[in-house]
Amino acid sequence: MVPVSSRIPGDGARAPDPADERPRRADAVRNRALVLAAAANVFAEHGTGAQIEEIARRAGVGVGTVCRHFPTKQGLLQAVLASLYESVVRQAEDALAHPDPAHAFEQFFVSLPDFYLRHRAFAEQMANELELAAQPVRDQLMAAISELVNRAQAAGAIRADIGPADVSMLLSGVAHATALAGDLQPMLRERNVRIVLDGLRPGSTEPLPGRPVSFTELRDAKQHGPR
Amino acid sequence: MVPVSSRIPGDGARAPDPADERPRRADAVRNRALVLAAAANVFAEHGTGAQIEEIARRAGVGVGTVCRHFPTKQGLLQAVLASLYESVVRQAEDALAHPDPAHAFEQFFVSLPDFYLRHRAFAEQMANELELAAQPVRDQLMAAISELVNRAQAAGAIRADIGPADVSMLLSGVAHATALAGDLQPMLRERNVRIVLDGLRPGSTEPLPGRPVSFTELRDAKQHGPR
DNA sequence: TGAGAAGCGGAAGTGAGATTCCGTTTCCGT
DNA sequence: ACGGAAACGGAATCTCACTTCCGCTTCTCA
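Above: the input entities. Below: the structure tokens describing the complete assembly.
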């Protein structure tokens, strides 16, 4: 227990807030960035099981430094994840910038599995739920995907009976499957993406069961379904 | 170092062979089976991170017993995996028994993601390479899938420009993606499978890049590609 | 340039969980 | 039924990473 007399007034507010913007020393800022970059690489190579020590070595700092900047491995992973999410959002927005909705959709659909390939940790993490911390970025991503889907549908480039939730699920499947094959079979990866895209073309055979699901509905279902 | 005089002649041959068929006590046989069954359940529920102690409890034996039958957790996992593989092979063969090739293919394609859903460990493990120990069963599975694909193609039920390797990759993607969604969204899972199946229908738009790849070729590529 | 705070490295501390060990119990052939 | 080998249970041990700690170094600001 901290004696009351030693507590700084306003202590509560200066606890480890996410928004603790106090000025940092230049070397601290630099090291933090080095660690984050190294962690991204190491997680990409070895998955979430990668060791702190390896990250420290790669960043050229001591383990103590890694752990000071990111008190837990979990936290470090989340930080890396957040930056990866941002990068994916950027890809989605790049695609969205293309005037042709069909091309935009396809561009994103092709680029994502590629991204997964170089970020195994990202793929693994999608599997778990701890990524919840990345909420705001996640919402951005969902919005972008929805937009891509809607536009492509409006242009008749993809079938009308699917929803964003379908697309994101397909994407995660393709990404995962092709990441397993690794760089080994780039052609197989390419073919895989094409086949799934063909499944998304309009004018398919029988109607799908159920109906299109948006991310909003999906989230609601997740909240109410379990528990 | 073991003194030479204490070494049993023929020691080398009685080392932990895989083919050590010496008769076991009845309780040992029973317990081994109990452990294997419990492990399958526990791994299915908690993934490969499940704890030995939980498995022991579930099997109604002590941890010592688990570890005697399966000296390492890795080994236990592989044993479970092998039995799951067998079960998948059985599913493929069941499907193969159906006279209509189109139905056979679809039946298997639908049943596998379902199986993954209840065996998270299996799905996780597909991601790693340690499953190599299951080689013989694996070959059986590949043979069965190839057969399903070939027959379906001969019957014109699925497009001719794909190979078994494409199918298995798609399958693993669908399986993984839908396993993440869990039981939560069975409808989404169903739709996902249908969309991919639509992508496999004949008469698709543009031709796929590359050419169909068989498992044999895939394996060769894996052996020669890296290293 | 010098005092002091902030940050650093990496050795030691922890903790969770796999593996081993051994006294006790259970089978099995005679 | 009995002797002894085989198995058992589960506490003790070992292992391996994450996390903490602290003496030393590097910044920063006056």
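Note for the figure: Residues 24-25, 27-28, 31, 56, 61-65, 68 of chain A lie near DNA strand C (CB under 10 Å from a C1').
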